[in-house]
Amino acid sequence: MYYYDRKLKIFSCTSNIPLAAAIAEKIEIPLGNGQVIRFSDGEVSVRIDESVRGADVYIVQSTCNPCNDNLMELLVMIDALKRASAKRITAVIPYYGYARQDRKTRPRDPITAKLVANLLTVAGSNRVLTIDLHAGAIQGFFDIPVDHMTAVPLLAEHFASKESKDLVIVSPDMGGVTRARDMAQRLGVPIAIIDKRRPQANVAEVMNIIGDVRGKHAVMVDDIIDTAGTIVLGAQALIDHGATKVSACCTHPVFSGPAVERLANSCISEVVVCDTIPLPDNKKLPIMHQCSVASLLADAIVRIHEDLSISTLFDAT
């Protein structure tokens, strides 16, 4: 797809090697020769087995579960490449962990998303490339450039072949309305909103449906599916309000705790996710479809490397 440039290098830590390899394949360059080593006491070390002097280096690492280990791997690799005289280091973080700790909701709460931003910057990262941050304001936590991509075009493309007159895009909460509106505009269909009350963490109670879903195929779109409580309860509410079919889609399939069991036993007919977080076989379901963000990130990396605008990628369909 692209010409080979010896100054462009892509390395991977251990959280999502298949995605890193797919990105390198799209750009038609070899994955960087480096490895993450763990000592017997659990300490992380990194070995870079090729020269990166003067190179424009991109490290692919999702800070998903185990998030602390994956974050530490990323920080150590950034430091290793910085000390090896890389010209520029970009942290490619398809899934940015700790993003839900972006503000104080109670006295003495930490703002861990800001702490992670500080750690990445102090370690030596010159730039960050990420996808669908839980809160867009996290971009402002960095004093270095942040390229914030969205996977909504990929998710919309999957549903573009469906009968559009029967589709309605649904936001599972008030905070996701912008994302749902973006997807609905790309498909030329209406939106609906689920108004819910959350009495405590990871417990959601559906209160009301705003919009017309009767007789329609409802597609719920979110950035993250974690324990799947919100999505499953929302899907049942949509069926109760007359939807004929419910699909769910998200960028980041965290799938923690009872998520897979809940999805398997729900009324959801299809779950569409991206590969920002790798899914082991025990978290895959027959109703699941995975879209790859490799091409999106490959295009962004090449444009950043060549000092071109990446804004056109935001409008890709």
The fraction of residues in strands falls at 25-35%
**Total of DSSP H or I helical runs spanning 4+ residues:** 9
Shape: globular
Would you report the number of β strands?
14
What order do the strands of the largest sheet run in, or round the barrel if closed?
Answer: 10-9-8-11-12-13-14
Low-pLDDT sequence parts: none
What is the N-to-C succession of helices and strands? EHEEEHEHEEHEHEEEHEHEEHH
By secondary-structure content and strand pairing, the structural class works out as alpha/beta
Biggest sheet layout: 7 strands, mixed
Report on this model:
This protein has 9 helices and 14 strands. α5 links the parallel β8 and β9. The strands form 3 sheets. Strands 10-9-8-11-12-13-14 form a 7-stranded mixed beta sheet. The chain has a 5-stranded parallel beta sheet with strand order 1-4-5-6-7, sandwiched between helices. Strands 2-3 form a two-stranded antiparallel ribbon. Helices cover 29% and strands 27% of the residues. The mean pLDDT is 93. The longest helix is centred in the N-terminal third of the chain and has 17 residues. It has 317 residues and is of the alpha/beta class. α1 crosses α8, α2 runs parallel beside α3 and α4 crosses α5.
